[in-house]
């Protein structure tokens, strides 16, 4: 038998499978999807088996054998292996990159170098070897390795810090040999478990045999008589306030059994989820539910757009359709944007389905994430809920995929492979004949358009549950506030509304789409703006650390009391950040309790949960934050939502700017008045007449969509075409321009009928990042694969330039950001 293996070397030359022999001892273990250890050149590396063969076209004498299988059960299913091939072609990435993204970080190989003596090297002849002046040092190294047989390279260099050149020469001259081992980044967790005997009545007899002075051992035996279940040794010693020696003594007499047992790291172990039950559906919900239910029962592929206003009860639809899936003994994947994977969302699913749910997201430790993934792989769960990468959950019988807030740009990966989770969901649903629900109160225009032009089924839910009214929305023109002499960041209507809610002991959500204290720092004497020395972007001031920071490359510098350009002391902090709003709230409303949620305050593990729990328990009056407070939150006491600056997204150089503004305003408005108390929204803007602001204030998706579609049609942008963004970056701007023009000409020469336009090369909206200039080309096209193949050829034609100059080329198919 032979195996085709994709090796862990992400380069163009190795982006193909290599044939390896399967030794008889591994024949039963090697399957499609297995991770294997193989020799590639002189190195031992990880590979993925993508095909099994009876015969190989390569001469048998030239083939190496697979050295090891890295786990008993294949890491990937055959379906995921096929999906990786498709991703490689679709998103123009190496196949190994697509395979790696499907696995938890714990399974990404960690390579360790080991040094051993060559078999034919004798230490006697080594001392007088004329090649080496440092005979004594060489002898020491040889004896050190001989004693240990193999030594990890890092350990050897630590032991002999001044001998790195000597060690290198010994390896070159084949006196020492270098090998490489593959190790997982995280291993399974094992604990010592204490097991009582099968026949519990025997414990009474053992008690009689013990001395009356053996108090602790008697206590242990009595514990198991009362609770005859296995328990962790550490837990038992804690409960009985005893040492492990007492228990080990009982185990040595074989009265109890001590065994090392593998356990799962459970991030929600200490949470007590109260069981919830299906709610009575409204007429609107029932109609939607029955439509999806029939598809699940028919086991056929179907895409649904569930367009439900905020508070219409989409989550209950998700829960009840998943229940249908479980009844069929099939599995479900639920995706939520990382930003809104709140404890609230996890709680809803865990309280309904308990231990049948695995949770996958980046806030878990590597070990926790690995164990949640293993629960899926070992079929211990039926539901996987998580952010973007949970779409690759290794289920084998998927019946339903749900993508909540489907319009969110976070479903598009920004690094290679630049996949979109919605596209992956469509491919997986084909393979499993599964239903896909795309849910949103503000669907992306592409999805909405598709649901009215293709086989995707449109399911509207235009009313809130229990007939609750949508919140009233007031748009405040901040230009008028300025004219009236109000220079505060709070308009008079918002100031009054906050005061009113504080008096009524109700809660407030304030949205500002910026973190930090000020958005830029400028000298009023000469106009100098403090910018990042490595990127073409102004630095943001963070008051708590008194630092100016670049949010692109991480560069930071301390605040200065004078201008670095003209030495003037007239430095001013412009713009408004979340820290500044927090400070302003406390000065305007003495005694107000504010919780600030942004990247700076939620970087620690568990911080999201901590802040939201405090807000839910009404330990704060205001929840102030960036986009993370705009969606997915449901608090009964929130009756006021304030948008400090509605224009931050609107002014971005992006054709989706109006759509993102409308979505953000609509989503954050939906946090108010979700229960018995009526809600109110105050939107502060300098563009009160913009159609995205007007439509959001009226909760009118249809009017926004009509205006925006007209604008897109005129400019020929999605959904009326597809896009591919190619970004070139290098320290030399002239080289960038030449390469961009060469690429653009190559595409234009082919004259494909599917290509509508090739725009550029032009400087990117952020023209420099991390000391590298950036230029981009944008291709507008209709159709599919032929344009993607052409771009692949065009990028390949730049191969020599890329090699010689270290130019970087990034290709983004269906980009969500043009920055």
UniProtKB/TrEMBL annotation:
<dbReference type="InterPro" id="IPR041236">
    <property type="entry name" value="PriA_C"/>
</dbReference>
<dbReference type="GO" id="GO:0016787">
    <property type="term" value="F:hydrolase activity"/>
</dbReference>
<protein>
    <recommendedName>
        <fullName>Replication restart protein PriA</fullName>
        <ecNumber>5.6.2.4</ecNumber>
    </recommendedName>
</protein>
<feature type="binding site">
    <location>
        <position position="523"/>
    </location>
    <ligand>
        <name>Zn(2+) 1</name>
    </ligand>
</feature>
<keyword id="KW-0413">Isomerase</keyword>
<keyword id="KW-0547">Nucleotide-binding</keyword>
<dbReference type="Pfam" id="PF00271">
    <property type="entry name" value="Helicase_C"/>
</dbReference>
<dbReference type="InterPro" id="IPR042115">
    <property type="entry name" value="PriA_3primeBD_sf"/>
</dbReference>
<feature type="binding site">
    <location>
        <position position="532"/>
    </location>
    <ligand>
        <name>Zn(2+) 2</name>
    </ligand>
</feature>
<feature type="binding site">
    <location>
        <position position="526"/>
    </location>
    <ligand>
        <name>Zn(2+) 1</name>
    </ligand>
</feature>
<feature type="binding site">
    <location>
        <position position="566"/>
    </location>
    <ligand>
        <name>Zn(2+) 1</name>
    </ligand>
</feature>
<feature type="domain" description="Helicase C-terminal">
    <location>
        <begin position="504"/>
        <end position="724"/>
    </location>
</feature>
<keyword id="KW-0238">DNA-binding</keyword>
<feature type="binding site">
    <location>
        <position position="563"/>
    </location>
    <ligand>
        <name>Zn(2+) 1</name>
    </ligand>
</feature>
<dbReference type="Pfam" id="PF18319">
    <property type="entry name" value="Zn_ribbon_PriA"/>
</dbReference>
<keyword id="KW-0862">Zinc</keyword>
<keyword id="KW-0067">ATP-binding</keyword>
<dbReference type="InterPro" id="IPR011545">
    <property type="entry name" value="DEAD/DEAH_box_helicase_dom"/>
</dbReference>
<feature type="domain" description="Helicase ATP-binding">
    <location>
        <begin position="295"/>
        <end position="461"/>
    </location>
</feature>
<keyword id="KW-0235">DNA replication</keyword>
<keyword id="KW-0479">Metal-binding</keyword>
<keyword id="KW-0639">Primosome</keyword>
<dbReference type="InterPro" id="IPR001650">
    <property type="entry name" value="Helicase_C-like"/>
</dbReference>
<dbReference type="Pfam" id="PF18074">
    <property type="entry name" value="PriA_C"/>
</dbReference>
<dbReference type="InterPro" id="IPR041222">
    <property type="entry name" value="PriA_3primeBD"/>
</dbReference>
<feature type="binding site">
    <location>
        <position position="550"/>
    </location>
    <ligand>
        <name>Zn(2+) 2</name>
    </ligand>
</feature>
<dbReference type="InterPro" id="IPR014001">
    <property type="entry name" value="Helicase_ATP-bd"/>
</dbReference>
<dbReference type="Pfam" id="PF00270">
    <property type="entry name" value="DEAD"/>
</dbReference>
<comment type="subunit">
    <text>Component of the replication restart primosome.</text>
</comment>
<keyword id="KW-0347">Helicase</keyword>
<comment type="function">
    <text>Initiates the restart of stalled replication forks, which reloads the replicative helicase on sites other than the origin of replication. Recognizes and binds to abandoned replication forks and remodels them to uncover a helicase loading site. Promotes assembly of the primosome at these replication forks.</text>
</comment>
<feature type="binding site">
    <location>
        <position position="535"/>
    </location>
    <ligand>
        <name>Zn(2+) 2</name>
    </ligand>
</feature>
<keyword id="KW-0378">Hydrolase</keyword>
<dbReference type="Pfam" id="PF17764">
    <property type="entry name" value="PriA_3primeBD"/>
</dbReference>
<dbReference type="InterPro" id="IPR005259">
    <property type="entry name" value="PriA"/>
</dbReference>
<feature type="binding site">
    <location>
        <position position="553"/>
    </location>
    <ligand>
        <name>Zn(2+) 2</name>
    </ligand>
</feature>
<comment type="similarity">
    <text>Belongs to the helicase family. PriA subfamily.</text>
</comment>
<dbReference type="InterPro" id="IPR027417">
    <property type="entry name" value="P-loop_NTPase"/>
</dbReference>
<dbReference type="InterPro" id="IPR040498">
    <property type="entry name" value="PriA_CRR"/>
</dbReference>
């Amino acid at each position: 038998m032979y195996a085709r293996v994709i090796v862990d070397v992400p380069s163009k030359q190795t982006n193909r499978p290599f044939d390896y022999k399967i030794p008889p001892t591994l024949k039963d273990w090697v399957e499609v999807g297995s991770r294997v250890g193989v020799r590639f050149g002189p190195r031992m590396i990880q590979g993925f088996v993508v095909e099994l063969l009876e015969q190989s076209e390569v001469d048998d004498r030239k083939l190496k054998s697979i050295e090891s299988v890295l786990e008993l059960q294949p890491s990937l299913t055959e379906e995921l292996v096929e999906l990786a091939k498709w991703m490689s072609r679709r998103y123009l990435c190496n196949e190994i990159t697509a395979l790696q993204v499907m696995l938890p970080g714990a399974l990404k190989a960690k390579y360790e170098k080991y040094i051993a003596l060559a078999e034919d090297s004798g230490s006697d002849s080594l001392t007088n070897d004329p090649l080496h002046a440092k005979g004594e040092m060489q002898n020491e190294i040889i004896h050190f390795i001989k004693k240990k047989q193999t030594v990890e390279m890092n350990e050897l260099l630590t032991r002999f810090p001044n001998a790195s050149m000597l060690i290198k020469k010994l390896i070159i001259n084949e006196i020492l040999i270098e090998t490489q081992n593959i190790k997982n980044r995280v291993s399974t967790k094992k604990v010592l478990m204490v097991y009582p005997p099968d026949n519990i009545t025997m414990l009474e007899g053992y008690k009689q045999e013990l001395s009356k002075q053996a108090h602790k051992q008697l206590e242990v035996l009595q514990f198991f008589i009362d609770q005859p279940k296995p328990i962790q040794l550490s837990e038992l010693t804690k409960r009985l306030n005893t040492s492990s020696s007492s228990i080990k003594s009982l185990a040595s007499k074989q009265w109890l059994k001590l065994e090392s047992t593998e356990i799962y790291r459970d991030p929600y172990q200490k949470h007590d989820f109260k069981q919830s039950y299906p709610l009575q559906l409204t007429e609107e919900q029932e109609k939607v539910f029955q439509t999806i239910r029939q598809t699940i029962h028919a086991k056929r592929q179907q895409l649904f757009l569930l367009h439900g206003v905020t508070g219409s009860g989409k989550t209950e639809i998700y829960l009840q359709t998943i229940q249908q899936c479980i009844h069929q003994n099939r599995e479900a994947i639920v995706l939520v944007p990382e930003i809104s994977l709140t404890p609230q969302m996890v709680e809803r699913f865990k309280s309904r389905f308990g231990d049948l749910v695995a949770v996958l997201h980046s806030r878990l430790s590597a070990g926790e994430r690995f164990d949640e993934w293993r629960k899926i792989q070992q079929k211990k769960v039926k539901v996987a809920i998580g952010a973007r990468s949970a779409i690759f959950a290794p289920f084998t019988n998927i019946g339903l995929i749900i993508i909540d807030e489907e319009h969110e740009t976070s479903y598009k990966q920004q690094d290679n492979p630049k996949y979109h989770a919605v596209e992956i969901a469509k491919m997986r649903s084909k393979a499993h004949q599964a239903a896909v629900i795309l849910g949103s109160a503000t669907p992306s225009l592409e999805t909405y358009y598709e649901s009215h032009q293709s086989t995707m089924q449109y399911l509207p839910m235009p009313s809130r549950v229990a007939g609750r009214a949508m919140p009233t929305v007031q748009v405040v023109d901040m230009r008028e506030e300025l004219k009236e002499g109000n220079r505060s960041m709070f308009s008079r209507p918002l100031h009054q509304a906050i005061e009113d809610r504080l008096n009524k002991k109700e809660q407030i959500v304030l949205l500002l789409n910026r973190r930090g204290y000020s958005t830029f720092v400028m000298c009023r004497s000469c106009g100098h703006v403090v910018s990042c020395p490595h990127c073409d972007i102004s630095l943001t001031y963070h008051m708590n650390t008194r630092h100016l920071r670049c949010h692109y490359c991480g560069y930071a510098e301390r605040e200065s009391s004078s201008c670095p350009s003209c030495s003037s002391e007239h430095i001013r902090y412009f713009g408004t950040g979340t820290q500044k709003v927090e400070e302003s709230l406390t000065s305007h409303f003495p005694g107000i309790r504010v919780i600030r949620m942004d990247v700076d305050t939620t970087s620690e593990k568990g911080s999201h949960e901590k802040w939201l729990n405090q807000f839910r328990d009404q330990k704060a009056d205001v929840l102030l934050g960036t986009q993370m407070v705009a969606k997915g939150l449901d608090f009964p006491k929130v009756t006021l939502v304030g948008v400090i600056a509605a224009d931050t997204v609107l002014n971005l150089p992006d054709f989706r700017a109006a759509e993102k503004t409308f979505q953000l305003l609509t989503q954050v408005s939906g946090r108010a008045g979700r229960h018995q108390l009526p809600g109110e929204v105050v939107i502060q803007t300098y563009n009160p007449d913009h159609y995205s602001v007007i439509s959001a204030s009226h909760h009118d998706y249809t009017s926004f969509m009509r205006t925006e579609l007209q604008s897109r049609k005129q400019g020929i942008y999605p959904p009326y075409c597809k896009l591919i963004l190619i970004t070139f970056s290098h320290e030399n701007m002239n080289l960038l321009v030449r390469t961009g023009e060469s690429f653009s000409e190559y595409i234009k020469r082919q004259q494909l009928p599917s290509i509508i336009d090739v725009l550029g090369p032009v400087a990117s909206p952020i023209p420099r990042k991390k000391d590298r200039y950036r230029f981009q080309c944008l291709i507008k096209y209709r159709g599919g694969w032929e344009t993607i193949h052409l771009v692949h050829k065009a990028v390949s034609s730049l191969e020599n330039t890329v090699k010689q100059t270290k130019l970087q080329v990034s290709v983004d198919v269906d980009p969500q950001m043009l920055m």
